[in-house]
Amino acid sequence: MPLHITKIAFQSESPATLKAWLESHAGEARLTTRYLPKRVEEMAGGSLYWIHDHRIVGRSPILGFGETGQGRYWIRLEPRLIPVHPMPKRAHQGWRYLAQEDAPHDLAEGEEDATAAMPAAMLGELAKLGLV
Questions:
Q1: pLDDT digit string (tens) for 96-110?
Q2: What residues does each domain of the chain span?
């Protein structure tokens, strides 16, 4: 089973803007990180799960990792956001590992996130209480 990572969708106003950013990249989207994950071999076939408003909202399959040439590394991603069943997740800096058994399942074709219509502030409070 592949290992995944989670990351905050920093500077993204909504999952829709995150999706637009990802889709604006032809071929692959790249994120820069200071350190190469120690468990990089386990991530073959894994995904980066995006956190927005204290919940995991989607994932982008990881294509691989590469050196930037400036002492940093790229996380190479497929330029798409696959919606998942939202799952509460506390904010953190950088990325964190996520085991397959702990990862949320993808939304089925045509299935919608029932919490998407809720105001962000209310959704955040419900997530802190562990209700969504």
A1: 999 999 999 999 877
A2: 4-128
